[in-house]
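Reopening this one. Same input as before:
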Amino acid sequence: MKKIIIFIFLLAILSQVLAININVEKQSSDETMVAELNKPVIFNLKITNYGPSDNFQFYNLLGFEMHPKGKIFINEGETKDVEIKIMPIGEFDYRGAYTFSYFIRGQDSSEIEKEMTFRIINLEDTFEIGSGEIDLESNSIEIYIHNKVNFDFQEIHTKFSSAFFNFEEDFSLEPNKRKNFDVQLNKEDFKKLTAGFYTLNAEVTVENKKADIEGTIKFAEKDLVTTTRKEYGFFISTEIVKKENEGNVLAESETVLKKNIISRLFTSFSPEPDIVEREGLTVYYTWDREIKPGESLEITVKTNWFLPLLVIFFIIAIVILVKQYSKTNLVLRKKISFVRTKGGEFALKVSILVSAKKYIERVSIVDRLPVLVKVHERFGGENPLRVDEKNRKIEWGFERLEPGETRLLSYIIYSKIGVLGKFALPSATAVYEKEGEIHESESNRAFFVSEQKKGEED
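Same output, byte for byte:
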């Protein structure tokens, strides 16, 4: 029994002597594996051998491919830097922090177990993009892309796009580094945009794998509305008020114009005002509008002074005619009408209406006859004093006419020769005495178009 105990004790001491005695220190940190890329995660280890010189082999039981596959020789007391690469075999859907267990075995089959932790993330979570602030006066903007992880990207193709610009770049990006780009801007591209935050998009392509990343661009507020006025014209006075929103925020605009109560009658507006208010002899017109960035409001006001001038001239003409008419003591109105005859001769009835506006005396009315016509022996109304066919005139006479008295003079003229076209009769003339003075009045001229009458007969 004593011998068995001594044997077990010696065996335990021998196993302690023969077991590997190494120290493993991880030099790297924040190791990351990008899921879409076929790249291993790399660990930098510093291994110190406190035991006898030995060949060491690294392996795992978790289904990961592990390099180096061969043995690494480390002398007694030696410290060696070892790069370990691991990569999952087949599909590996895990995302986040992952703890990896592995073994280091000596050539006598003694071994130790160690753990390493790394992160597994998607390509889209690897980068961050952003930009500086932009305003209406900016000619350029700085944007950036940041590699947030411990992964070296040797070749990246990126398409940047936003409401302000579009461009593409090829570059490399080391672990935890940031790449800046200075982008030139065209102000016409964003003059109609409102202030606020806009999306910055980046399509990142690495080894034919694509990821869409979003950031933001701040478009700083600027409130700027410019007003221009232009006036021209004399008889048609035109006033144009133009308000343009040169800022990047929605602008509340109030425009007030005034007219007096006379000019407003001849004024037109485009567009129509929103509010019309009257205070005494002044009328105020108000436009309350919202103007979007890059847009403008143009108000056109036209005052047409031709209209009041025409009204004034019309009134003056009426006054003159009324005064002239009021000065007339005797009014003659002459008209003609077609007369049918049994013999088919061309015949017209001539009527003269004599109206006295005031008391007049010794009135003589003379009407002249056109050539090629004869006077019928029968007369309507007042009979003439004489018919002078040689001098081709008819004369009527009245001793006096009372105010408002009216006389109708009429006669018929005829001709064996038909008349074509427009037939004109001269004016009748009246000579009379008023308060001892001699005055004269004329009638209108009378016309007859024979073709029209023939058409009516047909």
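So the earlier flakiness isn't reproducible anymore. For the record, The chain has three helices and 34 strands.
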